[in-house]
């Protein structure tokens, strides 16, 4: 199942719905700027900041360092496990 799909189970006539919400944050840039000369050097960008609004191409570029979002370390945290039980 994907990160935001519903999980449903039936037990003793009650229906339990669980929705898992996942929060994804992009942290420090890990792009190696000296890879072409055989070295290792990062630019020190501490956190991804989108250059544009969500849904645009600029949203995938970091305003601080100019790198693509994929160069930044991805951190996935489950936000909450919100459950509700209904009789049915």
TrEMBL record:
It comes from the Eukaryota. It is found in: Cytoplasm. GO terms for cellular component: cytoplasm. Residues 26-75 form the ZF-HD dimerization-type domain. One of its GO terms (molecular function) is zinc ion binding. The keyword Protein transport does not apply. Keywords: Cytoplasm, Metal-binding, Zinc, Zinc-finger. Its main location: cytoplasm. Signal peptide: none annotated. InterPro entries: ZF_HD_homeobox_Cys/His_dimer. NCBIfam families: ZF_HD_prot_N. This is ZF-HD dimerization-type domain-containing protein. It comes from Urochloa decumbens.
């Amino acid at each position: 199942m994907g990160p935001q799909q519903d999980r449903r189970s039936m037990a003793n006539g009650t229906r339990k719905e669980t929705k898992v919400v996942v929060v994804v944050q992009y942290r420090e840039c890990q792009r190696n700027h000296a890879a072409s000369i055989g070295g290792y050097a990062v630019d020190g960008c501490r956190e991804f900041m989108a250059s544009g609004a969500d849904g645009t191409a600029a949203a995938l570029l970091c305003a601080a360092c100019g790198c693509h979002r994929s160069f930044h370390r991805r951190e996935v945290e489950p936000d909450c496990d919100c459950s509700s039980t209904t009789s049915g």
